[in-house]
User: Fold these one by one.
Assistant:
Number 1:
Amino acid sequence: MRSDFPNLFVFDHPLIQHKLSCMRDKTRSTMGFRQLLREIALLMGYEITRDLPLTTQTIETPLCPMDAPVIEGKKLAVVPILRAGLVMAEGLMELVPAAREGHIGLYRDHETKRPVEYLVKLPDAEGRLFILVDPMLATGHSAVHAVDVLNRHGVKDSQIRFMALVSAPEGVRTFHAAHPDVPVYTAALDSHLNENAYIVPGLGDAGDRLFGTK
Ligand code: URA
């Protein structure tokens, strides 16, 4: 955690860093880009879930009964912000197949430049941890809006973790000004946003590179 960005966690694991560099390369194929994002999401998910509380359940092994550790409480919820978040969610769902998957679809209103919802489908909130995912934390407006949506559906900030592949300092500041208690987990804190709100050096348009669109 950096003192100038409280509640931001940058994963410096060599595998995550190497795979991210492969993704940034503009010659990477659509197939390679998707596969790498799934792999990084899985590795980041492993770190993000490290502190989940455990309880014990009595089971019978072939030799004897035992009190075996199992994750306490309700299943996790993975919530991608559409559409770029979908592939990160796939990686997380591979790691935690029993998780529930919600969806938040947002588009950018051309006049107000603000996010507008077009789809919200979420599991019940009570006692559940939500991992909200979007590969690029750029301006922070979509991320703030998505947490507002979760709040409206009864999910408290203390139940949410936000996972982004690449973040811009501007986006992290905007996000934490609105939701200081929601931790942000990212693989890189890049330099800045350009005049078109792209992250620099970044990796370009994550949605287009994931889905092979223009
Ligand atoms: N969204 C992207 O896909 N890329 C950026 O650099 C910023 C926002």
Number 2:
Amino acid sequence: MDSRSYKILVTGGAGFIGSHTVVALHEAGFVPVIVDNFSNSQPSVLEGLEKITGHAFPFYQIDCNDRDAMAEVFAKEKLHGVIHFAAYKAVGESVREPLKYYHNNLNSLIVLLELMAERGVQNLVFSSSCTVYGQAEKLPVTEETPILPAESPYGNTKQISEEIIRDSVKAGMPIRGIALRYFNPIGAHPSGLIGELPLGVPNNLVPFIAQTAAGIRPELSVFGGDYETPDGTCIRDYIHVMDLAEAHVKSLQWLDQQSGKSLYDVFNVGTGRGNSVLEVIKTFEEQSGMPVNYKIVDRRPGDVIQIYGGVSKARRTLGWEARRGLAESMRDAWHWQQQLGKEA
Ligand code: WQD
């Protein structure tokens, strides 16, 4: 498939997963068109992307909910497809401010779908999440695992978004849509020029580990040591963000081979392996050579005990599988943290 000069709209393209996907798109010969309002990212990410790729991609600082502004992008750029990352994603915040999440995450998707139909843009890759599975009975979870009622408004927006795309296709909208259910994205681009930029105190485990090792945080709290797991701590499927980025490229290339028909499908995007919190800490210490000061404290409400993905469908259909392991992810996370420290 010749993807040269195919323009791909990347909403949230200055974000953690979005920016790494911009690199993977460029490397595969696509032309990313970035939309971001910097509500959870920073302009410095664009500089990092230019240093890595040698290109300043078309960029629009607009909110995906701004239909007129988005319509102008669709009118100006001859788009071949869309990858929709832009969404609020903090589980705890979504419980405190549900309407903010329902409005932003759902309305932005509806605006995109309407403009895609108006402009004849058919390929959509949607950023979904393993959070739709909740605490599944049987592991690994597969795409056929029953979806449990969401445990947070954030997770519910992902479930509803998948249904919006599915129902739009069923209603005859000429869209070829894929929902990628991410597990836990970690690590950073090996250059150390882009990575996870948590604004404020990190919610997620790996940036908190890296900041503790860097001396920015005095101690990591391990939320719960008495779970029914081998070492008592929760288990997750941690996937290198570059593996995740490459799954989006494979998805677009697969969608191009499905031309002539509308479709909706979902794929798990993980490593297929589970690691505990203590295993992640140990691997980070081994790879960075830095001790991580931590204390086991009470469980965090809302945490599932363990989840990791069955990923054979993505391998079979998209020809994609994760190639990087936990050790490489930890090396790249520490390298990125060290670059951040230098900037600070
Ligand atoms: C992982 C494990 C924590 C921080 C969330 C969202 C998910 C996706 C990724 C958006 C858990 C433990 C964490 C800390 C800890 N986000 N932990 N101390 O909760 O699996 O997934 O982020 O798409 O949708 O739900 O990721 O990194 O927060 O937690 O012990 O300071 O690390 O209890 O067991 P999570 P996480």
